[in-house]
Amino acid sequence: TDLMKKMVAHAMQVGDVTKEEVESAGLQLNTFSDADMAIASYDELIDRLRSNTGDELRSAVEAQYDRMDMRFLERLNDRMQSDTANKDSLAALNSCIQETMSSRIQRASTTLQTILKAGDPAQMKKEMMI
């Protein structure tokens, strides 16, 4: 279990047990940190998305948009700087994400303006239901 792994990892960290003792007991510890797992998850999503082009890319970005937080965008930027072999597809992905972000912000702004122009709270609520 995760708790047991954390306990054993802590015991190793403070020197109560050695890695060899843990391995000889048949235990395996997850050697990846949460940050490593997040990077691997972001990389997997980036690779899946950049394999698309055109309308497929736009659809894929829209479908996965909620997974694209600031750390995802930072990882994409890091990859754009370091992965010269795939720089064009990474740049296309970044551009598509920025277009999607801009479009969503524009739609939200228009919706908010419509709601606020409705006047009284009952009319505003009615506009939000539409």
Question: Could you characterize the architecture of this molecule?
Answer:
The chain is mostly helical. 77% of the residues lie in helices and 0% in strands. The chain is built from seven helices and no strands. The longest helix has 31 residues.
Offer a few descriptive terms.
130 residues
The helix fraction, in percent, is over 70%
Distance between the termini: 47 Å
Poorly predicted runs of 5 or more residues: none
Radius of gyration (CA) equals: 23 Å
Strands, total number = 0
- Summing up helix and strand content along with how strands pair, one would put the structural category as mainly alpha
By DSSP (H or I, 4+ residues per run), the number of helices equals 7
Compact overview of the structure:
The protein is mainly α and 130 residues long. Helix content is 77%, strand content 0%.
